[in-house]
Amino acid sequence: MDTKDVIKRARGFAKPFRVTDGSGFRLKDIDPGDTLQFGSEDKPRAKEALAVGIQALAELQDMLYAQDRWAVLLVFQAMDAAGKDGTIKHVMSGVNPQGCQVYSFKAPSAEDLDHDFLWRCMKFVPERGRIGIFNRSYYEETLAVRVHPEFLEQQKLPPALVTKDIWKERFQDIRTFERYLTRNGVVIRKFFSANDIKERAFWNDYMKAYEDMIRNTATPEAPWYVVPADNKWLTRIIVGAAVIEALDTLDLHYPKVNKEKLAELAAAKQVLIGGKE
Known about the structure:
CATH topology: Rossmann fold
CATH class: Alpha Beta
Distance between the termini: 45 Å
CATH superfamily: P-loop containing nucleotide triphosphate hydrolases
Strand order of the largest sheet: 1-6-5-2-4-3
Number of strands: 6
Structural class: alpha/beta
Low-confidence stretches: none
Mean pLDDT: 88
Order of helices and strands: HEHEHEHHEHHHEHEHH
Strand content: 5-15%
Oligomer: single chain
Helix content: 40-55%
Largest sheet: 6 strands, mixed
Radius of gyration: 21 Å
């Protein structure tokens, strides 16, 4: 199967889970056990689709790196049991490590808390030609910090700024930040893995926060993909498909070398093999 066919299939895999307008989004409409077109017993075909997708992703990433025009930021948010780490590992397994950067955001440090809430993530936005992966992100500021008010108290904000509108204001800041990145050549795709483990503490509070997050920050330029996570193989297929589709929108190609540059390269080659300049 050639790359064009893979890209066409990728669009079909990713589209049902893409959210570009969150105004009517409801988490309860997502089935964590969805198996798409594969069926629960069709894992061999699913594995084949994933392998083909990984190969196509590697080819596109190679052109992204060579062209050095665009950057891609992939944001992963989910509860701990939703398989973020495994998805990142499998989907990106074929990508050249030189062109990929992964950052995991844990509890903020004292230095982080002395800055604005976007600061620690801003530092790691990928450079042109590279794919950056955020394992958790600035969205924690509307999730964990919202569910656990004591985290907000640690941020040392002036009391006058901590109002009932703080989450609305943070969503607005995030939308503005993502629009800014998009206008500067950073392609953003965001993933939330929905699973069916409901016995965890604060589950309902987190689900309300996630739903509000997606409703307020899903945009055409920075869409969310709400991916069923009960079947890890399907999660990986959908994420891979979404990344392939995003890269396909960038008109990627290898730089064209003019005659003068070819002559320089030929001369350099002769020097390296012992010829005369």
